[in-house]
């Protein structure tokens, strides 16, 4: 028989298996009794009746799909409404909705980093930002994690336009980026022009592009996001991306920023132009969740309080964890194998937790990743802590 063109895949699979790093899918039954600290439904809205009804109503009104790309047939009044309300809630002039946060990040980075530009990217950034850097025509400099001085040094080397790209809350460890210092580094990279006819034109500062996937709904007044909390929302040199799939319990993403920047994305971002518009059901669910968030601002504070409680209780038991800045609580595991065993023990005891291992974590540190939810009761927090401690033994 002819040799398979996929032999190399089988070789990779064997190597993965030898290293104990095989990933498998585990379909979740609708009636799962697991206590879920693995998903990103930070506000407990994914199954909220108003959110599911928002999805159903949108599907009935607009159909099961958007029918085409946004520039052809896929823009509905529902998309426009969601964009207006998202921008308004987060304090930005304009918003553009995408079919995922991943696509939104690819759009923001590629469309804002043309040939000859510099992208300064935090080493801890999410894969979607990394992929945006890889696809962009500009040159990327990866800088040390959460290090504004390294950002300044990198910006000194630029010859053309520059953007600084960072998660607001890093997805693996749940730590926050130093947004105020990053914004200052961006602005200090500019030089005022000389006045008068023969004066030199000066040079603009760098733009700050923030991925607020884990900040929206959790950080800032009532969950208005990390840019809002840092006083950067609506600034002329700041662009934020969000996902609709975490605190808003839906699916999709968005880029928020000055209107002329959003107009540029409509005309230049390939993941906007060539992708089918966000499904109406996802837009309807996100809009309903956003309205709930506005009416019930206490949800954001509750998610943060649950995260802090998990952190304090687990570290009091001697576990090593990162102090959470939002809803993600990262607990260190001694090895990839032990992380896997630990997560499996938790699951057997009725608790779903995330398990992050190399190569998803480039620093080689394995972790249990817990996500706080606003709808967890104190009793459920007690139970989760008990299971995690017991499962470690
Ligand atoms: N950015 C960050 C920081 C994320 O954690 C994620 C989701 N894992 C994304 C972007 C991608 O968002 P989406 O799932 O909506 O594609």
Automatic annotation (TrEMBL):
GO terms for molecular function: 8-amino-7-oxononanoate synthase activity; pyridoxal phosphate binding. Residues 34-183, 205-388 form the Aminotransferase class I/classII large domain. Pathway: Cofactor biosynthesis; biotin biosynthesis. Its EC number is 2.3.1.47. InterPro entries: Aminotrans_II_pyridoxalP_BS, Aminotransferase_I/II_large, AON_synthase_class-II, PyrdxlP-dep_Trfase, PyrdxlP-dep_Trfase_major, PyrdxlP-dep_Trfase_small. One of its GO terms (biological process) is biotin biosynthetic process. It is an enzyme of class 2 (transferase). Keywords: Biotin biosynthesis, Pyridoxal phosphate, Transferase. Its cofactor is pyridoxal 5'-phosphate. The keyword Membrane does not apply. It catalyses: 6-carboxyhexanoyl-[ACP] + L-alanine + H(+) = (8S)-8-amino-7-oxononanoate + holo-[ACP] + CO2. It holds the Pfam family Aminotran_1_2. Belongs to the class-II pyridoxal-phosphate-dependent aminotransferase family. BioF subfamily. This is 8-amino-7-oxononanoate synthase. It comes from Streptomyces liliiviolaceus.
């Amino acid at each position: 028989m002819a040799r398979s063109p996929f032999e190399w895949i089988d070789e990779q699979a064997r190597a993965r298996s030898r290293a104990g790093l095989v990933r498998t899918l585990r379909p979740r039954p609708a009636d799962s009794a697991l206590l879920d600290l693995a998903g990103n439904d930070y506000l407990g809205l994914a199954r909220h009746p108003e959110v599911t009804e928002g999805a159903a109503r949108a599907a009935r009104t607009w159909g099961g799909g958007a029918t085409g790309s946004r520039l052809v047939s896929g823009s509905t009044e529902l998309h426009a409404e969601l964009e207006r309300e998202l921008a308004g809630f987060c304090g930005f002039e304009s918003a553009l909705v995408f079919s995922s946060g991943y696509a939104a990040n690819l759009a923001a980075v590629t469309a804002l980093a043309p040939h000859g530009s510099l992208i300064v990217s935090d080493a801890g950034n999410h894969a979607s930002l990394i992929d945006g850097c890889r696809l962009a025509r500009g040159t990327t400099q990866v800088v040390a994690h959460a290090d504004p001085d390294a950002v300044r040094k990198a910006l000194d080397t630029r010859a053309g336009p520059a953007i600084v790209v960072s998660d607001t809350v890093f997805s693996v460890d749940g730590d926050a980026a130093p947004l105020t210092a990053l914004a200052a580094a961006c602005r200090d990279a500019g030089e005022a022009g000389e006045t008068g006819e023969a004066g030199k034109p000066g040079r603009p500062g760098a733009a700050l592009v923030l991925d607020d996937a884990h900040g929206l709904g959790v950080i800032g007044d009532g969950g208005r996001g990390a840019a809002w909390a840092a006083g950067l929302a609506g600034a002329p040199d700041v662009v934020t991306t969000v996902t609709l799939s975490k605190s808003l319990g839906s699916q999709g993403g968005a880029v928020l920023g000055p209107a002329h920047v959003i107009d540029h994305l409509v005309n230049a971002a390939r993941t906007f132009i060539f992708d089918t518009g966000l499904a109406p059901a996802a837009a309807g669910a996100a809009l309903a969740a956003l309205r709930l968030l506005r009416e019930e601002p206490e949800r954001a504070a509750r998610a943060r309080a649950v995260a802090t409680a998990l952190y304090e209780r687990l570290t009091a038991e001697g576990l090593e964890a990162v102090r959470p800045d939002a809803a993600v609580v990262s607990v260190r595991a001694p090895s990839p194998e032990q992380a896997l065993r630990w997560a499996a023990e938790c699951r057997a005891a009725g608790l779903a937790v995330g398990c992050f291992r190399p190569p998803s974590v480039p620093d080689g540190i394995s972790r249990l990743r817990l996500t706080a939810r606003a709808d967890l009761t104190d009793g459920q927090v007690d139970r989760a802590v008990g299971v995690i401690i017991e499962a470690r033994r």
